[in-house]
Structures are given as C-alpha cells and as structure tokens.
TrEMBL record:
This is Uncharacterized protein. The chain crosses the membrane at residues 28-53. Residues 176-185 have a biased composition (Polar residues). The keyword Chaperone does not apply. Pfam families: Pho88.
Amino acid sequence: MAPNLKLIGITGILIVSSKWYLDTSNPVHVWLVRGGFFFSQCFIYALLLYLFYKAKHTKEIGTVKVEKDETFGQTNAETKLLSVSDYDQNICLEELQRIAIGSAVTAFLHWKWDLYPPLIIQAVNQPYALLYSPLAKIHLFQQRVWGKLRRPWTDNNALTMDSQWKRWNGTINSAISGDASSQTRKALKGKEKAKKGSTKKKQ
C-alpha cells in the first residue's frame, strides 16, 4: 500500500483544511462533502470489481507461497500454495473487507456525532491507497511484477482486521483532536534518528 507517512500527511492537511474552510451550517458545503464521499465509494467499489475481474482472468502463471495468516492477533503457521489468480483475488477480498469497515466506521461517526472530517479523509485516502496498491499497479497500470511488486506482498500481510482496527483508532483520534500534524512531525524525527544511527554504525 501507499506509505503510511504520506497518508498521515494527507490526513493532516485535510483536517486543517476542513476546519478552516468547511461551514457545516451551509447546506452546499454539507452536501458537497457527503456527495464527494458517496462518489468516492462508488469509484472504489467499481475499481475493486474491475481488479477482481482482471485477477480472475490473469494470464500470469506460477504459485505464491503464503506463509502465515493473521486474524485478530492469532497466527496460523500453516503455509499455503496459491495460484497467482487465487492470491490476487484473495487480496481483492481483503481490500473489500478493509474498505467496507472504514466506510462503516466513517458513516457511523458522521451519523452519531455529525463529524465531517472523517468523510473528507476517507473520500481521499481510500482511493489514494487503492490506486497505489500492488493490485492496481499490476492490473490497472500494467507495471512489471518485480521488486516490491513480487508476490506475496508484505504490505498486504498487515491488512488484517486487528491491524486495521488499530489504524482506524488512530484515524478517528486524529479526526476528532486534529493531532495528525504532530504525528507527522514525530514520524519525521524518528526517520531522521534512524538515518543518523545507520551512518554512525557505518563509520
């Protein structure tokens, strides 16, 4: 998937922009946000359907070794050999599950507490993440399957219900408190410290 740091930065920009420019007392603003979220959802599910179709009819041959399957913190040590088509279809279903959970939580936050930032965040972040996923890069943009695009995709191993719920907790907290910018600064500082540590070791 797209790097988390980029998504955190986008989330921070969207939160700040919504606080500055969004007027919830203006019906035009309200329906623009709701309409944007609705059309974003239509685009995502249509794209997922297309990717699933392409994965089902792919001409790639070979097998993919899936070493573990994590669900709610439980690890299954069994290994599975899947065809390229079956593996990509499974990833499509995982993406569908992840996006459906995100959409449900977003709709609940808006309905329960009349929060608009989650609608704006998900209307942008969900299509962004899907378009930068290995699925889209291979089946939509026809990129070569090498490097980070070689299966199995390690980024997708983290797309479990448990890890996605933790990510959503962070998104909800940032949408309510608006602390995404501080998270971005912390991430950048951590990255700089890691670089300094690696250079010292080399010396």
